[in-house]
Amino acid sequence: MDATRLEPELRYQFARSGGAGGQNVNKVATKAELRFDLRNSSLLTDDERTVLEEKLASKLTTEGELVLTHQTERTQLANKEKVTKKFYKLIEKAFEKPKPRKATKPSKASIEERIAGKKRKSDVKTGRKKVDF
């Protein structure tokens, strides 16, 4: 899926960001907040919407809105670009197919190491027993 086609529905808000920056922090609204209304998007198909709702469930508000922020840069434009890139990466990652797992057998060395570890543990526990004289 091409996430750039969702750009018309992205809304940006700006606020004063915290952290270092001196007096500039108190005067300039450089923190960028990106909002995307996932549930009411007219650009998404139903299948795309369900996939995104499943994968991004922890990042959605109760109204089904995705909210991302970025505030590390000193300019509003740089923060806006960074939060937009973050959004595109998030959407692309949601549609990535997981790599199938190939079943493998344990190597001979790992089997021997596991058995040796069990033997050591057994010897330690045996050494804790009460000795009868």
TrEMBL record:
GO molecular function: peptidyl-tRNA hydrolase activity; ribosome binding; translation release factor activity
Region span, Disordered: 98-133
UniProt feature, compositional bias: Basic and acidic residues: 123-133
Keyword annotations from UniProtKB, A to Z: Hydrolase
Listed GO biological process terms: rescue of stalled ribosome
Keyword Electron transport attributed: no
Keyword Ligase: no
Documented EC number(s): 3.1.1.29
Residue span(s) of domain Prokaryotic-type class I peptide chain release factors: 8-129
Pfam families in alphabetical order: RF-1
Name of the featured protein: Aminoacyl-tRNA hydrolase
Organism: Spirosoma profusum
Lineage: Bacteria, Pseudomonadati, Bacteroidota, Cytophagia, Cytophagales
